[in-house]
Design a protein that fits this description.
Elements (H helix, E strand, L loop, with lengths): L3 E2 L2 H21 L5 E7 L3 H17 L2 E7 L5 H12 L6 E4 L9 H7 L11 H9 L7 H12 L8 E5 L6 H8 L9 E5 L6 H5 L4 E4 L17 E4 L3 E4 L7 E4 L4 H4 L5 E2 L7 H25 L1
Parallel strand pairs: 1-11, 2-3, 2-4, 5-6, 5-7, 7-8, 8-11
Antiparallel strand pairs: 9-10
Helix pairs in contact: 1-10, 2-10, 6-7, 6-10
């Protein structure tokens, strides 16, 4: 029997409907959430990602601007712009689209963003607050994974979650979120990575298996326990002569084989992807709500 499909598209739509109500409440108080996105260069993937975020913002009634700098823009110039945006009350959230050109330090740029406007959740203050369980904002993709699990009826509470991948974007923050002594978390978490020996022995113990390794179809059916829930974070292009583009998107999981063993599984595309953009909108609205609350307390 094939696994239940966990539709990120459907779950994201539900969250956006909830957000619409919160945005309406803010606007009734004279506040329109504002998001500014900074892009350096014309990397096609970055252009596409920023365009998608801008479209979603408009659909929800969030004010957004995209500020574009040439590929050869200087680090000092970019840092100066971040400082200006930090003090610009029109924007509640600041997002710098990664990757940046090699001559610009991503760490310096991300660290320059005001933690209360860091809607990506990458600033060290936000990372630290996440780890101790008192976050301003949670990183969008890991938070999206948590919401997928909760809203599909697959709560991680009391489960053994195995995460394959230890990146600062997905693996490590997801571990920090799911290990918390909180509703929607409280899991036993194991992280596997390129240095893990006998990985399949560990992944077969997972009640919930999260693949975030960035390698196509690396999680095979023999690595998955019967009845496990499988969340595929990977997005990989592989050649496909039948497609106009010459390629198709696949995840880190061998979907066709694993879906015959899993209880539930996310597709690629249409799984984790739609959640990432939606959680960015959640963080932007939260930033607006937090500022409004702070103003009323002042």
């Amino acid at each position: 029997m094939s696994a239940e499909l966990i539709s990120g598209t459907r779950i994201a739509e539900g969250i956006r409907q909830e957000l619409a109500g919160r945005i309406g409440q803010l606007k009734a108080k004279g506040v329109t959430p504002g998001l500014v996105m900074v892009r350096v260069g014309e990397d096609p993937a970055s252009v596409s990602y920023v365009s998608g975020k801008s479209k979603t913002s408009a659909e929800l009634g969030i004010y957004s601007e995209t500020q574009v700098y040439p590929e050869n823009a200087g680090e000092k110039e970019l840092l100066g712009r971040i400082a200006e945006l930090n003090s610009n009350l029109r924007f509640h959230g600041i997002l710098v689209q990664l990757p940046l050109p090699n001559h610009i330090s991503e760490d310096k740029v991300l660290n320059a963003i005001d933690p209360l406007k860091d809607v990506d959740g990458f600033h060290p203050v936000n990372v630290g607050r996440m780890l101790i369980g008192e976050p301003y904002f949670l990183p969008c993709t890991p938070h999206g994974v948590q919401e997928l699990l909760m809203r599909s009826g697959n709560s991680p509470e009391g489960k053994h979650v195995v995460i394959c991948g230890r990146s600062n974007l997905v693996g490590k923050p997801l571990m920090a979120i799911l290990v918390q002594k909180k509703a929607g978390a409280n899991a036993t978490v194991t992280i596997c990575h390129t240095g893990t020996k006998n990985m399949a022995q560990i992944t077969r113990q997972a009640d919930i298996l999260v693949a975030a390794m960035g390698s196509p179809k690396v999680i095979t059916a023999d690595m998955v326990k019967e009845g496990a829930v499988v969340i595929d974070v990977g997005v990989n292009r592989i050649p496909d002569a039948t497609k106009k583009t010459g390629f198709r998107l696949v995840g880190d999981v061998d979907f066709d084989a694993v879906k015959e063993k899993a209880k539930a599984i996310t597709p690629v595309p249409g799984g984790v992807g739609p959640m990432t953009v939606t959680m960015l909108m959640v963080n932007t609205v939260r930033a607006a709500e937090m500022r409004l609350a702070a103003q009323r307390q002042a």
